[in-house]
Amino acid sequence: MNKRQTRLFAIVATALSAAAFIGLTLDSHRQFDRLTNAESITPAVTHGKNVWHKNNCINCHTLFGEGAYYAPDLTKITKLRGEAYLKAYMKDPSKFYDEQRHRRLMPKQDLSDEDIAGLIAFFDWVSNVDNQGWPPRPILVTGAALPGADRSVEQQTSGAKVERGGMVAPPGARPLTGDENPIALGERVFRTATPACTACHSTAPGVNMAGPSLAGVKGRTEALLASADYKGKAKDVEAYLHESIVEPSAHLVPGPMYSADGTSFMPTTYAKDLTPEQIDQLVAYLMSLK
Predict the structure, then answer these.
(1) What is the pTM of this model?
(2) Cα separation of 259 and 249, whole Å?
(3) How far apart, in whole angstroms, are the C-alpha atoms of residue 123 and residue 61?
(4) Phi, psi values for residue 162, rounded to 5°
(5) 141, 148, 149, 151: which is closest to 81 by C-alpha?
(6) 162 pLDDT higher than 80
(7) Hey, do 38-127 and 159-171+179-287 end up sharing a CATH topology, with the first three levels equal?
(8) Which CATH fold would you assign to the domain 38-127?
């Protein structure tokens, strides 16, 4: 090309790039209110945002992948933890950790009930923002898993299949036919339900997280049912496990980490989100733990 053609090419290319940039910017602004659920920004949400900044929470935590990466990403925290849990945690985080064992602790901020309610409202608003799956690998609450965040690279790039009940199966996995071992299916539910049971429970002896370890749950339940401490309606271990899944506050496990004001921190959504068959499979798996 001669100089005139080169100059013309540069001008046209710059103009087209500028037009594309302006168009994409305008389109983004057009969608911001919908993507961020702007209509859900209440005074409580605004107050919670101010509490977040006032207490420099971003010095340790992250939102949408932005922050210090020292403590868990809280973008989807209300999808993993209920309001009762979050209230109790923010009231006194020291009850949830052993300083000698875990070392780094969240400082007690002495937040008022209004501040805590605002923070929960803010986190709930954040959790419903359409963040397009970002960040792809957030730092999560111990043992937690978000949809797509705990899958292998192969699964994410080669089209993992969704089985009945919304569970994710590895690429090439044999589809469910209905004659599988219920314990194996129960383990799959344990790891892939929303929120995943692994977000709060460990199956290793003595490893208590947000919820108690489920190792030996069958034997412990038998002892509990034979004692006067049990407050629920179950008559055997299977019924107790079923009750704890669909009606977690029927019997409260002792300890400030697990309940507050007569309400269990266990999510109450499994009765709605899981089928009766999946709940039976989950019970069968839990019955198998030694």
Answers:
(1) 0.59
(2) 8
(3) 12
(4) -105, 120
(5) 141
(6) no
(7) yes
(8) Cytochrome Bc1 Complex; Chain D, domain 2 (1.10.760)
pLDDT in tens, 3-21: 899 999 999 999 999 999 9
**By the 8 A CB rule, do 149 and 137 touch?**
yes
CA 159 and chain centroid, separation: 23
Reported as a single tens digit per residue, the pLDDT across 197-243 is 988 888 888 888 888 889 889 899 999 999 999 989 999 999 999 99
Assess contact for 202 and 215: CB atoms under 8 A.
yes
Q: How many CB atoms lie within 10 A of CB 206?
A: 9
| For residues 167-179, average pLDDT | 43
Q: Where are the domains of the chain?
A: 38-127, 159-171+179-287
The vertex-174 CA angle with 170 and 176, nearest 5°, equals 105
Q: How far apart are CA 209 and CA 223, in angstroms?
A: 22
Give the angle 70-93-101 at the CA atoms, nearest 5°.
70
Is the domain 159-171+179-287 a CATH 1.10.760.10 member? yes
- Reduced to 3 states, what is the DSSP secondary structure of residue 61? coil
Output the CA–CA distances (angstroms, integers) from residue 160 to 93, 149, 152, 196, 198, in the order listed: 38, 13, 10, 18, 21
User: Would the pLDDT of 152 be above 60?
Assistant: no
